[in-house]
Fold:
Amino acid sequence: MEAGIVAIGSELLGSDRVDTNSLELTRSLRAFGFELRFKSVVGDSIDDIAAELLRLAGRVDLVVVTGGLGPTSDDVTREAIARAFDKELVLHEQIVGDMERRFAKAALKMPEVNRRQALVPEDARWIHNERGTAPGLQLEHGDCTLFFFPGVPHELEGMIASSLRPWLEARGGNTGVEERRLKVACLAESRVEEMIAPAYAEFGRERITVLAKPGEIEIRASVVGRPVERTEELRRMHARLSSLLGQAVFSADGSQSLEAVVGDLLVAASATVSTAESCTGGLVAERLTRVSGSSAYFAGGAVTYADRLKREILGVAAASIEQHGSVSEVVALEMAVGAIERFGTDYALALTGVAGPDGGSEEKPVGTVHIALCGPGGTTAHYKGRFPGPRERVRQMASQWALDLLRKSLRSALCECETGTS
Structure:
């Protein structure tokens, strides 16, 4: 069966909002074998929405629409439905009552404007929204079924689970698309392509997708077929990709962030970490503490942007800064050692560099970053990076390389413990 998705909202036509709802809907459609033929974004215009609904209803078997079901004057999806399919809008008192009870639970009086959300096109079925006030709608038009859901992602996700997926499952049959993911860190996209080339030859290039962002690449393997068949094929594909990429894989199921993986490894090693940052301004510490439970392994950090603070807080030698400059391997290593001594942790990460856009030189151009790791027994590691791009990209990539340096060290230490080597 063929499907189309329409995301409604003038804000989605701007430059600061991303239509993530369509991605969530696409995953559900693919899982049940529906072929997505059209995906569109329409502003808050009754005429434009009505025209798009009519166009798609005549082309596909299923149309899923998000957005425009709120209480304000720019929420015009209901009016567009009425215009497109020549329907009257009928006020449902049961919906009004449900909304009033929801507001009452929060000790609030429902604003009169919310009554607009109880308007339902005649012949349409309204769908209860467990997570918000805007009900969804289901409408039949000829051979096409149309679902209308709120645009709030949290509400949409709940209604996909309760209403859309059961409908899809009943009509999609056993054939669908299933995928598995894995993530690698700090490799160029071209290098990943080279590494997984044998998998392309074995399973087909069209079944493997490579998605890149700064310092991280996600590889997706997908299979079309019946559940048992695709599960076994995906297992083989995933195992092959994992084998080809080796230790570069940091998330075997593609679900974890690098900082979460590092946190798990620190817990497994019963180890703690601290940070000493200059050019990243505390970004590594911020990423580590994004993870719930990070207090078990993250002790603290120092943002020593000024050379004076590198000396006074971390104990970096004035002679090291004078001789090598603050952006250098020597200073980065002394920062890491100083962090371990002052925070009393097993590991410390230190970063110093030129994030730009100013401050670079011929010897140390913008994007130059020194990353140092100090570990148990005084062991140290160092990485010098030259990260291209604007300031925020340099900072993000530097933090990614730092976390991956720690990940590799922890994996190595854990492997040595498991094998009984020292």
